[in-house]
Amino acid sequence: TPAKDVKYRFYYSFPVLLSHHDPGVLYTAAQYVFRSTDEGQSWDQISSDLTRNRQDVMGEISGGPISSNASSLFHVSLIRTLAESPLQEGELWVGTDDSTVQVSQDGGASWLDVSPPDLPEWTTITAIDVSPHRRGTVYISGERHRVSDRTPYLYKTSDFGSTWQLITQGIRENDYSWVIREDPVRPGLLYAGTETGAYISFDAGDSWQSLQANLPPVLVMQMLVKDDDLVVATHGRGFWIMDNVSSLRAITPEVASAPVHLFEVAPALRRLRGGRGYSGPSDAARNPPRGVMIEYYLAQTSTSEVLLTITDAGGEIIQQFSSGSEEGPNPSTGAGMNRFFWDMRYPGTRMPPSPGALDGFLSIDYSPPSPPVAPPGQFMVRLSVDGQAYEELFEIRKDPRVKASDADLRAQFELMVDLRDRFSEVADAVVRIREVRGQVEGRRAELPEASRVEAEGILDELREIEGILTIWMGSEAHPMMWSPPGLTEKLSSLSGAVGAADAKPTESMYAVFEDLSERFEVQLMRLNQVIEEAGQSQ
Q1: pLDDT higher than threshold 60 for residue 359
Q2: For a tag on the chain, would you pick the N or C end, based on fewer CB atoms within 10 A?
Q3: Could you tell me if 88 and 131 are in contact, meaning their C-beta atoms sit under 8 angstroms apart?
């Protein structure tokens, strides 16, 4: 059917809008605007034809006579976008595919054509964003690729469309525009999506710069600022999210001209599991990193160490991360914006060394106690660059889904710290045993017969103590018959139980920890006595 004979010229992805002010009101549009107050059961037409109604190009089916395209994709003179003011109920805006912008201040009872006078013919209005900060300020995006024009068309009005300003300075040539959005927190902070990517403006559109980062060069068709995240929908690459745009909101000329700037740190939710979470199959999206997001700006690449120090509210150092460390994670020294994630964990435990070639010991893989996760509370990060220090306080908050109290989580944290420290003490004791064994075995051949027998007795007792602390298998033992688990395994298992969920430790957990600690103290006293005897014998 030729477009001139179609009653309602709906685009194949026509706009649907839920009112900001009344969740019972729904809008949609063809060449007219329709409103429903019964969830789409019925519709009222609230406008006349708001397009230019270009009947001169509607007489034939698109593509004919060789290959006709009977699809609403090829209809013309239709409404492509709808918007409602978040500040004023009844203020509606529409944009068409034939260079028209119209506004109603009375819920659709009357409409006014406020199209930019210099808008070229057949400009499709792809997005309208009504400012959430100031009435009368509106941003529109348009494009004309259907008529072989790849020019970006971004406009701004501050007087309800009486006058318009073209705002495309900084957008690449031929990178035609699809969407524009104003940040709901910072007035004048704009985001734009184009045929090849994303842009940002800090001055209400007077200038733009790339916001591409790791986003592929792909058509960005829609944008939404949800809380502190920027969400974009692309054509062919799915959804992308820029997590936490709070630092973008904080960029001012003073920040941009500073040699170093540490941004305010957003509150972080406490979660036991670190890393990026479940990644799923190779074609699935990954979750964002969990932890505290620390962002800083360097005007130039730093040639000296960049050091990040995390402290608790009392100033006690929890962790330090250096750009020069051989072990990661490492803060970046690169010029520009930098991000670093602290996984909210305290330092981990010391591990006992591998038994190596020592006879009778079985080397196994078991997980050490997990590093304690910081409890809810106040913390501080210090950024040190070129002898200057910059500090920001931040908060770790309890996950709102967790029913345990802050005091419960503090108790869990304290027991996890005790388990870590006790495990480290056991590991230190194993190191001492290995050192003494090596010394005794190294000198055994030089000793007289009576002393050699005494040395062998010392070695047997050291093996027995180590077997209680870790795992020891006698030379005659069957390889599939392991000895009972040592204190290291028991402490590790208890740590796994304590840290398995956000909850206060049970009385049984405390009782097991006390029992294991007492067993260790017995073996430690025994070890000290054996070492003393070994020293006397030598």
Answers
A1: no
A2: N
A3: no
Between β-strands 317-322 and 260-262, what pairing exists: parallel, antiparallel or unpaired?
unpaired
Residues in Cβ contact with 274 at an 8 Å cutoff, skipping those fewer than 6 apart: 290, 291, 343, 344, 345
Rounded Cα distance between 456 and 48, Å, is 103
Task: Quickly tell me which residue has 């974009």 as its tokens.
Answer: 232
Place of tokens 């075995």: 441
| Type of residue numbered 236 | G
Task: Render pLDDT for 506-525 as a digit per residue (tens, 0 to 9).
Answer: 999 999 999 999 999 999 99
The conformation of residue 485, written as its DSSP 8-state character, comes to P
Give 282's contacts (C-beta < 8 A, 6+ positions apart). none
Residue 157, strand partner residues: 138
**Total residues belonging to the chain:** 538
Tell me the residue type at 307: L
Look-up of token digits 């260790």: 520
Contacts of 227 (CB under 8 A, 6+ apart): none
Q: Where are the beta strands (DSSP E) in 41-123?
A: 44-45, 79-84, 92-96, 101-104, 112-113
Pairing of strands 209-210, 239-242: unpaired
DSSP states of 141-182: EEEEGGGTEEEEEEEEESSTTSS-EE--TTSPTT--EEEEEE
Integer Cα distance of 261 and 296 in angstroms: 6
What is the number of other CB atoms lying within 10 angstroms of the CB of residue 449? 7
Question: Exposure of 460 by Cβ count < 10 A (0-12 exposed, 13-18 middle, 19+ buried)?
Answer: exposed
Check if the beta carbon of residue 460 is closer than 8 Å to that of residue 437: no
pLDDT at 367 over 90: no
User: Of 293-297, 423-427, 467-471, which gets the smallest average pLDDT?
Assistant: 467-471
pTM: 0.81
Calpha distance 192→218 (Å, rounded): 13
Distance CA 103, CA 138 (A): 11
Neighbours of 15 (CB within 10 A): 20
Distance CA 135, CA 126 (A): 21
Question: Residue 109's closest CA among 90, 94, 126, 95?
Answer: 90
Residues 233, 226: contact at Cβ < 8 Å? Answer: no
Residues ≥6 apart with Cβ < 8 Å to 272: 373, 499, 500, 501, 502
**Contact partners, residue 303, CB within 8 Å, separation at least 6:** 333
